[in-house]
Write a structure and sequence with these properties.
Layout lengths: L5 H19 L8 H11 L6 H12 L8 H18 L9 E2 L2 E2 L1 H5 L1 H19 L10 H12 L4 H11 L6 H26 L4 H34 L14 H5 L1 H17 L9 H12 L3
Helix pairs in contact: 1-4, 2-6, 3-4, 3-9, 3-13, 4-6, 4-9, 7-9, 8-9, 9-10, 10-12, 12-13
The structure holds geranylgeranyl diphosphate.
The site of geranylgeranyl diphosphate has 18 residues, from helix 4, helix 8, helix 9 and helix 10.
């Protein structure tokens, strides 16, 4: 599949996901209006929809009907958005901007932003529960997979390690533990849920687990690199200067050059686990290559 196919496919898939999100989420004028407005404000703030795209591409790789994977694709995006809303709170990262717009707590106030995150996480489960069961996987299997990803051993656990590591110089192993939990876990869950809707064999599910893990780590390394290169670009400095480098990032620990090599190595590992899918895995392959080359 030529790489030029990816952009139009990404655009139409993102539109399909947005339309599904609009229909699954409570309407903006449903009472009480403020919370529904706040939920939609963060969901429709211009995210890349990477997790839903991965979920749908994984269903395709396993020979499934992509429409059956729309509910989990939306559920992972809604869980992701909840984590961003809470991560931006004054008691966490205290960020003013997200997806290029003022953060939820800046627009709606801190209390409402806490509730917005809570409501998004809860609605994510309601959306997930719409997923049709298959011969191998029940709705209970989807729910367990999803709950474990959002729980204290993955997303929340990663945030705990992040909070505890604040201001400290972390080593590479500690950094990987945070990124496994904060980033790789939800990417892995996205591809696994997509595969489960396609009644994936255990072997293919395992291959996608490997893929999601390595892609997730690669994505985070690339994100860290972009943070440094874009910040230095913005400040008109030479990329790699120490003052632009946060202590607990890959570039801070490995340097920019080694971080780029690490991202390429992890992407190669991810691509290797797609071999079992033959041509059907080419969409996932394109996405992995695209992420490695992305500039935003
Ligand atoms: C439960 C508060 C709480 C946190 C859990 C996932 C997480 C831990 C926090 C979210 C913040 C964060 C920086 C996560 C790392 C993963 C990452 C690079 C997120 C950004 O994902 P993109 O680039 O964002 O896909 P868009 O906006 O495109 O969806």
């Amino acid at each position: 599949m030529p790489a030029t196919d990816l952009k139009p496919w990404l655009k139409s898939t993102q539109e399909q996901v947005d339309a599904a999100l609009r229909s699954f989420l409570p309407r903006e004028n449903a009472a009480p209006k403020t919370i529904h407005k706040a939920m939609r404000y963060s969901i429709f703030a211009g995210g890349k929809r990477l997790r839903p795209v991965l979920c749908l591409a994984a269903a395709e790789a396993c020979g499934g009907d992509v429409s059956e994977a729309l509910a989990p694709a939306c559920a992972v995006e809604v869980m992701h958005t909840y984590s961003l809303v809470h991560d931006d709170l004054p008691c966490m990262d205290d960020d003013d901007l997200r997806r290029g717009r003022p953060t939820s707590h800046k627009v709606f106030g801190e209390g409402m932003a806490v509730l917005t995150g809570d409501a998004l996480l809860t609605e994510a489960f309601a959306i997930l529960a719409r997923t049709p069961a298959t011969k191998r996987y029940s709705v209970g299997d989807y729910v367990r997979e999803f709950a474990e990803t959002g729980g204290s051993r993955k997303l929340i656990g990663g945030q705990v390690l992040d909070l505890e590591g604040e201001g400290k110089q972390l080593n590479k192993a500690q950094l990987i533990r945070i990124h496994e939990a904060k980033t790789a876990a939800l990417l892995t869950c996205s591809v696994r849920l997509g595969a489960m809707t396609a009644n994936s064999t255990p072997r293919k599910l395992e291959a996608l687990t490997e893929f999601g893990y390595n892609l997730g780590l690669a994505f985070q390394v690339i994100d860290d690199i972009l943070d440094v290169t874009q910040t230095t670009e913005m400040l008109g400095k030479t990329a790699g200067k120490d003052e632009a480098v946060d202590k607990s990032t890959y570039p801070a620990i490995l340097g920019l050059d080694k971080s780029r090599k690490e991202a390429a190595r992890l992407t190669r590992k991810a691509l290797k686990s797609l071999e079992v899918f033959g041509k059907k895995g080419s969409r996932l392959e394109q996405i992995a290559r695209y992420l490695l080359e992305r500039e935003y």
